[in-house]
Structures are given as structure tokens and as C-alpha cells.
Amino acid sequence: MIVEFRAIRQYDPRLIEPLVDELLDPIADKIIPQKTALLKPNLLMMATPDRAITTHPTIVEAVAKHLIDRGMKVIIADSPGGPFRPSLLEAVYRATGMMGVAERTGAKLNFDLSCFLAELTSAKTLHRFEVLNVIKQADLIINLPKCKTHGMMTYTGAVKNLYGVIPGLTKANHHFRLPDSSAFGHHLVDVAEYVAADYHLIDGIVSMEGDGPSGGQPVRSGFLAAARSPHQLDRAVLRLIGIDEALVPTIRSAMGRGLLSQSPTIAGDEITVTPFRLPASSPVTFLPAWVPGSIHHRLAKAIRSKPIFRHERCIGCARCAEICPAKVITMDQNRRPVCDYDHCISCFCCHEICPVRAIDLKRSWLGNRLKK
């Protein structure tokens, strides 16, 4: 499996468009006039492009133009974190620059909130779940993730981005049902295999390191990369950014299924990136397989990171309480969040969705000691 890399350090359409044309060449046979293409960027939340939380609009626009110039119809779609409502979608499309992409290219923004029940008899975890109807309209699906670290999954790229086909707060419900990162990693691979996107092109021009996917720091990593396999693309990017693939549950799941039986063949530009800083919540993998399950569970709970609420920054929007799958966050009389840590599942949905970075991730004392 070939993974193509291109070196580019700025979001200049004059530079990006010819590179995107090159990167899309392997699927030229799938670009058919009058057919419909679905672009699936990372639109996690209402955030401007400079924050490096969402796929940059210049990338989405270059892909849309490439397809539309060749006669395709294009739909841009995602289900951001939080409630799935037209008003929220519009705000997210506007803030992330997708509204402008649609206006300039003629691409359509998805406001269809309807879903269907997908059934996966071969799934490792959940065998039935809701999926956005819009994917049924697509003859071609192109996945456009953002390269970021992730509090629960260590890294979010091609596989994790396809979780956005699950509507609104249903995603939080799945977190509650699958609080263990390994089980959730299996679920993400199940979803990615079900969607079976035709191509994956990741935005790594400015990525995010540290406490991603929304509270980390932008870092100029200077690359675009593309492949037919989301698993091979993620593996190649992890090697580039210096993250041990053993820390990434989606990679472990893909390996167990034989989806990564061969190493990717790297083509294109030679790129060097300073290793990314991991999230404070990155997993501690020190327990051997022979440790009894009851002891493993207690130690895992003791080393688990927790969200810490910075009330001085909080604006009282209550999005953290609304999205919390375990329903352990409540708002006090001053409209500030209070967490029942005894029942927190450390999914970090609250951290992802906070619009003002008022939630930090804090590793436990034991977790810190074991990391040294």
C-alpha cells in the first residue's frame, strides 16, 4: 500500500491546489461526471481554522474544486461534537470556513439530520448503530482528517475522523457503552470499515500536539499525505510524527484484524518532523498480560487521567454537561461545572467540546510516577 507525502508549510491555494491534484490522481478512475462525492473533513467544533482543531478550508476547497472541475457534485458533511441541530451545523460551517468553501466552489453543505440503522454482524463491539443518511447519497467518499493528538486515543487521523458519520450525541452514548480505549478503538475501526471511504487525505500542514484534539498547541508539521487505506495512512503519519503506534488503540485493532499485515510504501517528498508531545492523558502500558483482571482494573483506574475544570475561564455554556456520556458533570449555582470523579469514565468528551479551553487533562500521581 502506497502512502504519498507532499511537503508544504503554508495554506496558500496556489501551492496546495497542484499538490492536491497530484494526490488525487490515484482515484482518477472514480471521479465520474454527474456522480456525487462526499467530503468528510474534521469539523469537531465551532473553531476558526487558525486553532488547528479542524481541517483547514483551503484543503477542502482544493479537493472540492478538483472534483467539481471534473463534473462531480460535491457534498461537505460532518457531525460535530454536541447536539446535532441545523443551527449548530450552520455555526460550525461558518466558523470553520466551510461556508466560504461552498460559496466559492458550488459544493453543498449537508443539513440532512436523518439517519439509518447500520448493522455489522462482524463488528468487534457494537453490532448496530445509527449512521448519517448522507453517506448513502455518495458515489465517492473522500476522508479529509486533521493530524492531531487525542486525549483518549493518543492520536486522531484517518480512522478516527470517520467516527463523524455517527450523529450528534449518539457518539457520546457510544463512549459510555465503550469506556475502555481498546474497546472504543475496535469500534472506530468497525465504523471505518463500514464506511469504506474511497480515499484519505490528511491535513498536516499545521497539526496539533499535546492535549488534543481541541486543547493542544498548533505545530507547523508541514505535510499533506494520502492513501487508499486509512490504517496505512495513520501508521505512516504516526511514524513521521514520532508517536509509538502501540499507544494508539485503532492501530492495535487494525493489526489484530490483519489490516496492517504489510508496512506502507512511502512515496513523494522526504519530510522530517519534530516528535509530537503526547497528551497528558496518554496511556501507561506497563502491565504484563498475566496480571489478574481485578488488579489490572484497579490499577488502570488509579492511573487514569481526569479532566480538571478551570472555573476562572469557564463561560457557563454547559456544553460539557450536555455531552458527558456518563452524566457525571453538573452545573452549580454559579453555572460552573462540577464532576463526580468516582464515576468519570475519562473519555474526555468534555475536554474536546469546550469552546474556551477551560478544561485541562491531569494525570494522576501514580500515572506520573509510572511515566518516569
What do you see in this structure?
The protein has 372 residues and is α/β, with parallel strands linked by helices. It has two domains: 2-268, Rossmann fold (3-Layer(aba) Sandwich), CATH 3.40.50; 293-371, Alpha-Beta Plaits. Helix content is 32%, strand content 21%. Strands 1, 2, 3, 4, 7, 8, 9, 10, 11, 12 and 13 form an eleven-stranded mixed β-sheet that branches. α2 runs parallel beside α4. It starts with a strand and ends with a helix. The model has no long low-confidence stretch (mean pLDDT 92).
Key attributes of the depicted protein:
single chain, 372 residues, alpha/beta, Alpha-Beta Plaits, 2 domains, globular
Assigned CATH superfamily of the largest domain: LarA, N-terminal domain
Poorly predicted ranges: none
> What string, H for helix and E for strand, traces the elements in order?
EHEHEHHEEEEEEHHHEEEHHEHEHEEHEH
Give the CA-CA distance, first to last residue.
Answer: 37 Å
CATH third-tier fold name of the largest domain: Rossmann fold
Number of distinct beta strands: 17
Corresponding CATH architecture of the largest domain: 3-Layer(aba) Sandwich
How many helix segments?
13
